[in-house]
Design a protein that fits this description.
Layout: H1 2-37, H2 44-66, E1 76-77, E2 80-81, H3 82-88, H4 94-108, H5 116-119, H6 123-160
Antiparallel strand pairs: 1-2
Length: about 160
């Protein structure tokens, strides 16, 4: 039963991630414009990208928490559930694609052209954004894994009670 249930959960999650990925650039633009309207001047791109990614990762964790994963019988090796790779896979390339789309948008945006560092960001600024995105991704992956591993412990504790 757990294999079929888990396959359905992974499929639902992957479909949800695909939909969110399609909307992520629009979310970036909305966040960027909100920051511009609020007269924020420093690190506009970085903050909008991080806010967009962080919101998606937070929502993804909420989605994972709601799905009825059954970790009984799911192998955990060196602290990693074998389900973790399956739920991380739909995100493959997400951070890089979001950053690429944001940088391409910024190069063509009249509003951003007034902010040289945002319009044509330096290599150092781009690396800083990549590091921040990598840190957010790492936090998401670790938290998602913890959730999937804990699902098995809670299931076993409930069965023993």
């Amino acid at each position: 039963m757990s294999i079929g249930t888990n396959d359905l959960c992974v499929a639902r999650f992957a479909a949800w991630v695909a939909k969110q990925r399609k909307q992520s650039f629009d979310r970036y633009r909305i966040t960027l414009h909100r920051n511009l309207s609020a007269q924020r001047r420093q690190h506009l791109t970085q903050q909008a990208i991080l806010d967009t990614a962080a919101a998606l990762f937070r929502e993804a964790l909420e989605m994972l928490y709601e799905l009825p994963f059954d970790s009984r019988g799911v192998r955990v090796e060196r602290g990693w559930s074998e389900l973790t790779l399956r739920i991380l896979e739909p995100f493959q390339g997400f951070c890089e694609a979001l950053l690429d789309d944001a940088l391409r948008f910024n190069r063509s945006s009249c509003a951003i052209s007034n902010f040289a560092e945002e319009h044509l960001p330096s290599v150092v600024y781009q690396l800083e954004m990549r590091r921040e995105l990598a840190a957010a991704w790492k936090d998401f992956a670790l938290t998602a894994n913890d959730l999937l591993v804990d699902t098995g412990h809670h299931e076993m504790a409930s069965a023993a009670a």
